[in-house]
Amino acid sequence: MAAEYSKGKDFISSMNVWAIDVAEDPKLNAEVDGFDVSDKFFPPQAWLPCSLSLRLQDVTAPFSAERLGTYDLVHFRLFLTLTTEKLDQLLENAIKLLKPGGYIQWVEHDKTSMKPVAASAEGSTEAVEAFIGLQQSPFPNYRAAWVNEIAPMLANKGMKVVAEDRFQTRPNVAPGLSSSVDTFKEKYFDELAKDSQNGVALIDGFIVVVAQKPL
Predict the structure, then answer these.
(1) In this structure, which topology does domain 2-212 adopt according to CATH?
(2) DSSP label at 39?
(3) Residue ranges per structural domain of the chain
(4) What SUPFAM superfamilies would the database entry show (predicted)?
């Protein structure tokens, strides 16, 4: 069932909170644990499906022994700011959580596939191209192409990569996340809004990699 979900679930229609999406799916009948380094944005337990538990955990730190080897599927996403060392530790921990034959599904923002699109040839894409540039280089020494290394990273850990898919979507402009974003908003935000009204937008992308732990 874990493999069927991780490879077959329609990604674009399940961009809501993944843990809730899975826990509420009657076809899966899954018990779901969600982990985060902070509980600041945890909904009240009364609002969650009874099969979902949210817990505090730094995923780059060791998990408790009773959780090791107990999960059919580990899903994580959007670790785009972690260092190589942290990503390596994240993977080590995730693999230890899996039962033999269990799966990892890793979803990341694929900034390398971003591109402008216009409804007509007259539409200016200057603001959209500036936004793409900001996304691809939000701070010094950031490499947007690191997502292409996810599958090799999993393979190097002894996992069998069974799927590597890319999906395209259209995002909204992000709120201020850094001085670079704030500078962009001052210079281009109004123009970007006008472009949107005139049929100019950008195609954004995500990469989804699924790998299986050996039996």
Answers:
(1) Rossmann fold (3.40.50)
(2) -
(3) 2-212
(4) S-adenosyl-L-methionine-dependent methyltransferases
> How far is residue 103's CA from residue 73's CA, in Å, rounded to a whole number?
5
Does residue 170 contact residue 94 with C-beta atoms inside 8 Å? no
Do 184 and 123 meet the contact criterion of CB atoms below 8 Å apart? no
Q: Are strands 200-212 and 160-169 parallel, antiparallel or unpaired?
A: antiparallel
Q: Where are the beta strands (DSSP E) in the chain?
A: 32-36, 52-56, 71-77, 98-109, 115-118, 160-169, 200-212
Q: How many residues does the chain have?
A: 215
Cβ atoms of 138 and 180 within 8 Å: the answer is yes
| Nearest alpha carbon to residue 17 among 1, 38, 41 | 41
**Tokens at 158, concatenated:** 């002894």
Which residues does 26 contact at the CB level (< 8 Å), separation at least 6? Answer: none
DSSP state of 85: H
Check residue 101 and give its pLDDT.
Answer: 95
Rounded mean pLDDT for each run of 10 residues along the chain, 215 residues in total: 39 56 87 87 84 89 94 86 85 94 90 79 78 78 84 94 83 48 66 68 77 89
